[in-house]
Structures are given as structure tokens and as C-alpha cells.
Amino acid sequence: MQKEQLIEQLRRVFHTYGYDGTSLSLISQATGLGKGSLYHHFPNGKQEMASAVLQAEGIWFQAGLNLLRQEGEPNMRLAQFIQFIALTEQDKLEASTLDIYTMGNARSLFGADMGLAVQEWIAALNKLMQDAGIAPAVAQHRAISTIAKLEGARMLCRCLDDWQIFEQLLQELPQDLLN
């Protein structure tokens, strides 16, 4: 099994069961690898596995932020970002990265990294809005509010089993952020 495939399988386990709820037995069952093979790939165990998943997610996340940061028309940059963050059916069954890495024991291990990621997200949204002529204080408030809405909407949609709420939120983002 290639490392990228293994990390994707690990991601699914962590996003389904959370960091604290993920055991080596669950990981072994999901990947089809014995505990010895898992330790061969990740000698430091579950924390190293979670770190590898988080690193891969960080690369994906930076690609999304780069869409917001690039040069060009703010509306087009935002449209590309919205398309980038659209959820697949599998994503809808899983907790968000912020959920996974800021709860329970994961918070002490990864919370600082998650805080930095959120700060980068705020900054990228803020810059996008300022490029569209939105005042800095208003842009800052809207950026924070947008992230809270997106993350909260994921949880709400899972509870209600109604993803139209999230889709509507994505459709309203251009109006909410750039006007």
C-alpha cells in the first residue's frame, strides 16, 4: 500500500471516530494492516499517524487558501475557493479537521497548529475582502463570522441530516463577504 493511500485511510478513521476514539485496532481494521506494519510506517504510533494526516490536510488547506490569496478578481477567487471546499458525500459523514484536532487529547497535541491554521484562514479571507474594498475592521469581523458559520453549519447539517443548509451558506458567501 502506498503512503498516500494509507494516510487517506487514516484520515477517514480519525474523521469518523475522532482522535481519542481512534484505536490501533480500528486503524488496523480500516487499513488491513497489522499493528506491526502500522508501527513500521509510523514508529511513534497513533500520534505520528495523526500528524501525518494533519500534514496532508495542511497541504490541501494551503492550496485552498492560495486560491483566496492569488491575484485577480475577488469574486473569481472566492468562487474558486467555494468550489474547492464543497463537501463530498464522504465528507458529510465525517467531522471537520478542526473538530478532530481541537477536542480531547488532540487539543494538547495539535491545538496550537489548529489555531495557526485558523489565523491563516482569517487572514486570507480578510485580504480577499480588503482587495474587494471592504474596510479592514469589517473584513476581520466577516472572516471570523464566516469560519464560525462554515464550521458550525457542518455540525448542524450532520445533526439535522440536511445538507441544504451548508449548500445555501456557500451560495450566500459572495454576497455576505464581498458586498
From TrEMBL:
Residues 1-60 form the HTH tetR-type domain. Residues 23-42 bind DNA. The keyword DNA-binding applies. Keywords: DNA-binding, Transcription, Transcription regulation. PROSITE patterns: HTH_TETR_2. It comes from the Bacteria. One of its GO terms (molecular function) is DNA binding. Gene3D superfamilies: Tetracycline Repressor, domain 2. InterPro entries: Homeodomain-like_sf, HTH_TetR, Tet_transcr_reg_TetR-rel_C_sf. This is TetR/AcrR family transcriptional regulator.
